[in-house]
Amino acid sequence: MDRMALGEFELSIFSDGTYPLDGGAFFGVIPKVMWSRKLMADDRNYVTSGLNSLLVRTGKQTILIETGIGNKLSDRMVKFYGQPAKLLDNLAAAGIAPDDIDIVINSHLHFDHCGWNTVRDTNGKIVPTFPRAQYYAPEGEWEYAQHPSERDWISFLSDNYDPLVESGQMKLLKGSEEIVPGISVETFPGHTAHMQAIIVRGNQDAHAPSGPRFPTACYISDLMPTSSHIDLTWGMGFDLYPLETIESKKRYYERALAEKWLTVFTHDPTTPWAYIEQDQSGKMVAKGVE
User: Fold this and answer.
1) Which of 99, 111, 152, 281 has the fewest beta carbons closer than 10 A?
2) Cα–Cα distances in angstroms (integers) from residue 119 to residues 83, 124, 129, 142, 190, in the given order
């Protein structure tokens, strides 16, 4: 588990495990001769994808950002992705029970980002995994998930969110909103039309070398799923709007580079977060957190 302070907040990474993903799909139009320098593929061309959730303790509330794959995959999907299902065990090892979570935020509703939103009880009924939590997700994402395209219907499992919307436990967000003081969401389209990043701003640091600033972390989700995707044109084959992915990255970097944001990677199995810098040649470089 990776942990750090961000102003008055405490940030921790919890993993739901890893799963295999086709390297060509993970990197889209980027040739293997280029991406294989960053991630090793097996003899089937699979790479290892992480499932990183971000836990934020504000001092008043405990907030879980993203809930991994969960444990409700069909037998067919388990053949493709396995069933890692480690998030609850990893939370428990740190002394965190489902009842301790006050808020759950989903960046979007693909199955590998909201799988632990719900579980089946002993009678097979779908119930909230985090019974006390208020859930949040983008409204446009939920509306699309009701009638996805033939291209990406497999990415959506309605049991992960529909019961929560029906009960009122999941609030659907229309756009950029503050969830609690210091934690907000902002839409960054590209991977999907309505995917949101979660931005965490700590208290103001009056002694920062460049002058007072708010230390900031951003769970950027599938806009940049790993530290290998930080170049502007490196996207996934799963992106529905790849040109918008590039424009969203530009908009993200306008602020993140200038304000030295910590970027949290949802699918990086070894580097869950890093500071991204631009070197003299203009290349983006991920600097690990010590």
Assistant:
1) 281
2) 14, 9, 6, 19, 30
